[in-house]
Design a protein that fits this description.
- This protein is an alpha/beta fold.
- The chain has a 7-stranded parallel beta sheet with strand order 3-2-1-4-5-6-7, with helices on both faces.
């Protein structure tokens, strides 16, 4: 399918690895001029080089998008975009009794307030130009909370509520806002979570991962390229009638009807 976004511009956050990188790769493959942002210079440089080697147009900005200084670096390098993909690493797992106010504020800054700041910066220009696609990478935990991910559950749910209200105000300008909710994908984040579960249970990491695969209806984890393709479609010219949605990519793990 021709997605109709050749020549558009995009900013993809936390895109040196995992799902963010997959989204950047998929957009660049469609002819989108893509700016990648990440904290790690080496991994970012490698991701940009990989995209360019595949024929895509990509540049990198090294910075922490969750800080005002990092966001300013990005805005200086990339003052306007047609496509915004927000993303940031999830907060640590744990028990809510052990989290203090500073940890809650850090989670909100990373997974709720940073996306909102970026939307605030780029949305007006999108509306003026009559095209915009904003996709927030959140988590399947927004639909089915995971007890050890309380910080993530709370912050990402706050972003979800914000997007639900705003998305209905912008779609008439051909600017859509949607959330992609990944379940278990083959990423570093998945393995890191499994390492914590292995330590707590006395099992090996491979045993934990095998058990998670076994209970997923798909019998496997998702591949990052599948996630990137879904993101690219939501950013396409054909997705202008999809807004305010929370789209699960989880192999059928969520058992609910709605």
């Amino acid at each position: 399918m021709e997605l109709g976004i050749d020549g558009r511009t995009a900013l993809v956050c936390a895109s040196s690895k995992g799902s963010g990188k997959a989204c950047a790769f998929a957009l660049a493959a469609e002819g989108v001029k893509t700016t990648l942002v990440a904290r790690g210079a080496d991994a970012l440089e490698a991701a940009v080089a990989e995209i360019r080697a595949a024929g895509g147009m990509a540049v990198g900005v090294v910075g922490d998008i969750t800080t005002p200084q990092g966001r300013q670096l990005v805005l200086d390098a990339c003052p306007q975009v047609d496509i915004l993909v927000t993303n940031a690493g999830g907060p640590p797992t744990g028990d809510f009794r052990d989290w203090d106010r500073a940890q809650w504020i850090a989670a909100l800054d990373t997974n709720m307030l940073t996306p909102i700041e970026l939307i605030k910066a780029y949305l007006p220009g999108m509306q003026e130009r009559g095209f915009g696609r904003i996709v927030n990478l959140t988590s399947g935990a927004v639909k089915a909370s995971i007890d050890v991910l309380g910080l993530s559950n709370g912050a990402r749910s706050g972003l979800t509520g914000f997007v639900a209200g705003l998305a209905r105000k912008t779609v008439a300008h051909n600017v859509t806002l949607n959330n992609l909710l990944p379940g278990p994908f083959e990423t570093d984040r998945l393995r890191h979570t499994a390492e914590g579960q292995a330590q707590a249970s006395g099992k090996t990491v491979d045993e934990v991962l095998a058990a998670r695969r076994a209970v997923n209806p798909a019998g496997r984890f998702g591949q990052p390229a599948e996630f990137g393709a879904a993101c690219a479609f939501l950013c396409s010219q054909w997705a202008g009638y999809i807004t305010g949605q929370n789209i699960l990519l989880d192999g059928g793990a969520y058992p609910g009807t709605f």
